[in-house]
Write a structure and sequence with these properties.
mainly alpha
Length: 186
């Protein structure tokens, strides 16, 4: 009981010392997580009692950004999207895929920022604005390239395109394995 009271007292002190910018960043994490879950999960499940559990998974990274909470939330969001498209037969729509990818990326990058930013730090809004501008530039470029790749895939369908896709995936996996190996050696 004493440990629980100690945690509650530490949380009260932390909330009393929190500054506006780190608090707003954590609110952005929670907002990105909640909207991502609402885009991904089937509406029938969101309107049920399971919404509380999904919302708790979406909000947890905002409370504790220094763990793997947002990774877990992203996996839950993608699982919800797969459940909706495969289990409930919803159509795969471009706006949902782009919205889900955008929200997960923004939530992930805000979680990374919140993980290194103390809750009581005094931060200039230009720092957060530059961080978000870079993140939005990445999202915009990715969305444009996704739409172009989808157009090219419909125009260039066939065996050669499938072979090029598989070669590109193999190259991406190889590059990831190489980077992971180099990081382990360092």
């Amino acid at each position: 009981m004493g440990a629980l009271l100690g945690r509650i007292d530490r949380a009260r002190v932390a909330l009393g010392r929190a500054t506006a910018v780190p608090f707003l960043i954590r609110c952005g994490i929670a907002l990105c997580g909640l909207i991502a879950m609402s885009v991904a999960w089937p509406p029938a499940l969101l309107a049920s009692e399971y919404f509380v559990l999904v919302a708790a998974v979406a909000i947890y990274p905002a409370v504790a950004p220094r763990g793997r909470g947002f990774t877990f939330a992203a996996v839950v969001a993608v699982a919800g999207w797969l459940l909706d498209t495969v289990g409930y037969g919803a159509r795969v729509e471009l706006w949902r895929v782009l919205a889900l990818a955008t929200l997960l990326y923004l939530g992930h990058t805000l979680t990374a920022l919140a993980a290194v930013l103390p809750y009581d730090a005094v931060v200039n809004l230009d720092v957060v604005g530059a961080w978000l501008a870079r993140a939005l530039a990445v999202v915009l470029v990715s969305a444009v390239l996704t739409v172009v790749a989808l157009e090219l895939s419909s125009a260039l369908s066939g065996g050669a395109f499938l072979l090029a896709t598989l070669a590109g995936l193999a190259g991406a996996v190889g590059a990831t394995m190489l980077i992971a190996r180099l990081l382990r050696r360092a």
